[in-house]
Write a structure and sequence with these properties.
mainly alpha; 0% strand; 201 residues; globular
Length: 201
């Protein structure tokens, strides 16, 4: 039940040429992380200021770039031997900020309380994945509405103008995704002794 995350290897293959060019130019992985945040913010502006369906194309292009940068920053760090703990923190912060920036565009077209609920729910899958990894489980990134699924829903809203229904679907789907990841983590950690997962109980 990996949702659109199952397409990540295919998408990474499409970006191989760009990754090689970035390695040759010694581009910083952190620069790509922040470029992804800027693309998400620009997509939010397009969503909020352009009417549907005219917003669909710029939102789709900008969010595709946001996903590309999110894929390339980690790959570039590995290719150039620049994987650091600080870089991991920047990567996680960038992903969360990009999600929030993207959803901020709905503040122009939907009730703020609903946007806030959707934004809060959208963080759930990542927090579960991070908590599981901190406890010693494998990092889980799949589920029905992960990062790629959220971007797809935003593009759908830009194309149709169904802002409120899409926010509702995004919120519910994110909570379901968090639940799916929690179930994976719970099963994986079930038989491990407390000392192995860093418990303080």
């Amino acid at each position: 039940m990996n949702g659109l995350y199952a397409l990540k290897p295919w998408y990474a293959d499409r970006l191989a040429g760009a990754r090689a060019a970035l390695v040759r130019r010694q581009v910083s992985p952190d620069a790509l992380t922040w470029a992804g945040v800027l693309c998400a913010g620009a997509a939010a502006v397009a969503l909020g200021l352009l009417p549907a369906p005219w917003a669909a194309l710029p939102v789709a292009v900008l969010l595709a770039a946001r996903l590309a940068f999110a894929n390339l920053d980690g790959a570039l760090a590995r290719d150039t031997g620049k994987c650091t703990r600080r870089g991991a923190v920047v990567n996680e912060l960038g992903d969360r900020l990009a999600d929030l920036a993207m959803l901020a565009g709905f503040l122009f077209v939907a009730p703020p309380w609903l946007v806030a609920c959707a934004a809060l729910a959208a963080t759930g899958p990542s927090w579960v994945a991070l908590a599981g990894a901190a406890a010693g489980a494998a990092r889980r990134n799949g589920g029905p509405v992960g990062k790629t699924g959220r971007c797809a829903l935003v593009v759908h809203a830009a194309a149709t103008g169904w802002y409120v229904p899409v926010l509702g679907a995004l919120a519910v789907g994110s909570l379901v995704t968090a639940g799916v990841r929690l179930a994976w983590v719970w099963r994986e950690l079930a038989d491990r002794p407390a000392a192995a997962v860093g418990s303080t109980r």
